[in-house]
Prior knowledge:
seven-stranded parallel beta sheet; two-stranded parallel ribbon; 11 helices; globular
Amino acid sequence: MRLFIYGYGFVGRALARRMKGQGWEVSATYRDVADAEPMRAEGIDAVPATDKDAIAERLANVQALLVTPPPGPEGCPALQMLVPALAKAGAFPDWIGYLSTTGVYGDRRGGWAFEGGRLAAQSPEGARRVAAERDWLEVGRGMGLTITIHRLPGVYGPGRSAFERLRDGRAKRYDAPGHVVGRVHVDDVAAGLAASIARPRAGGIYNLCDDEPAANSTVIAHAAALLGLPEPPLLALDIDALPVKAQRFYRENRRVSNARAKAELGWRPAYPTYRQGLAAILAGMGPS
Length: 288
C-alpha cells in the first residue's frame, strides 16, 4: 500500500510515521532541496513539489493521497498541481484527504460548530479555505474521486506546544472571559486521518479536535505549572493592539464538535484534553 503526501509538514510527518508502522510505503513532496535528505533518512521517497512528471509517476499506484498546503490568493496550489497529475496518471486513489481548518466556521460566540452547519469565515485565510474545500469537493464529483475534508483547530505536539512558548518568553495570557478554543495533538490528527483512510467516504467532512475546548490562558498556566515555572501574568485584552493573527484568534470564539469523526470513523483522541497531551509531551522531553 502506498501513501503520497503533498506537503511534508508537521501533520504529514506524523501520518507518515503511523502508516509506515502499518507497512505502507510513503512518498512526499519537498520545496526546499535541503529537506530531501532528512526525509529520505526517515524512509520517505522524497519528490520535488514542482516535478510534475515525478508526481504523476508516484500517483499512478497510490491508494491514499494527503493534501496539506494552505491556499493562497490564487487558490489551492496542490489542486492546480495534482489534478492534472492525477489525470495524466489515470490515477484513482481510494482516498484523498484535504487538510482544512475550523476557521471556516468563524465566530460562534462560544457556541458549538458542526460539520453540517453554516460556514462563516471571518478572515481572508478562512475564506480561501472555504473556497479550497469547495473546489476539491467539486473535483471529486467531476472526476469520480473520493475526496474527504478534515478541519483542524490549532495543532500541537512535541516541539510545537505551550512549553516552547514559555521557555522562549513568547507565551502571553490575556484576560478574555468566556473565550475558548479547540486544539488537537498531532498524533491524534494522524490517527483520525488513518481512520478515514480505512473508511473512505466520498464527500466526508470531519472535525478532528480534542474533547475540551479551553481558554488559551488556562492552557498556558497549566503548562507553566508542569514545568515548575511561574505562570505569565494575566494581561488586559486590547484586541486592536494585538498583531493581526492574534486579533483573528480572539475575535472568534467557538467550540467545535468531534462527534461525527467518532461516530463514522470510530476515532477517539488519545489525548482528549490539553492536560493529557501536555503530559505526554513533557514525558518525552529531555532536560531543559
